[in-house]
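Side project, low priority. Logging it here so it doesn't get lost.
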Amino acid sequence: MAQLRRDPILMIGEGWDAYRLIDSGHGRKFEQFGPHAFIRPEPQAMWAPRLTQWDAAGEFIPGSDEDGGGRWNLTRDLPQGGWPIGWEDVRFHVQPTPFRHLGFFPDMAPVWQWMCAQLDGRADAATLNLFGYTGVGTLALSRHGPVTHVDASKKSVAQARENAALSSMEDRPIRWLIDDAAKFTAREVRRGKRYDGIILDPPKFGRGPEGEVWRLEEGLPGLLADCRKLLDTDSRFLFLTVYAVRMSSLALAGLVDEMFRDLPGTVEHGELAVSETGQGARLLPTAIFARWSNPD
């Protein structure tokens, strides 16, 4: 029976050579992506910045509505098609996108490390990446065996495949699927499939490739129930991250605990955060998570 740990955990991204959180404050954050620095909105940065000036190549100016919109105000010329950076042995392109991010989520770095640690020593582990976006986590998981990468965005999957080629990993056993995550997972259950690990990073709201509507509070319980059916006592992990919602990590953990109560292992929950660099560095929270792990 899986044991629920009630005390929350912090998973902290420290940055690396290709990415740094330089400073934050007054509702914004100042980040370095390879040779270029950018300013993006960050409502949780309620404190004052440490630096008196931010010298950036561009800033994302949010729209008037809470749920999205906005534009980039670029002050310097940037490479057409973006520029490559890396995390460990994975290479990927970054560039400003209309959705305020730059093609990957740097706060996920400790999650990628944690998942690979659960599969340490395995070269045949089958894993599933739902809402896989541009594939950095998929490529990290591919060190340990075949990966099924699912995303509703044709453009994101194309970028993920380009990142695989950039990393010289295009020959690894990865299935790249443009599909609705909930529908795909339900089909896998009917097919009797199983996985050694699953990561899912669902949005608060989204649409599938055929216009399917996704609302987190309505769709997550059913999706998580299907994910549970794809795992068994020999599986190693499930990792669920959620952004920009009015709920706690303890609520996520309660849902995972309910679904995974019949399996061995541990259910944990907490927050993802990124650490600023330099003297007086602070932690900037970014997301909540719940995870199930079943060490060998």
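Brief comment: The two ends are 15 Å apart (CA to CA).
Revisit when time allows.
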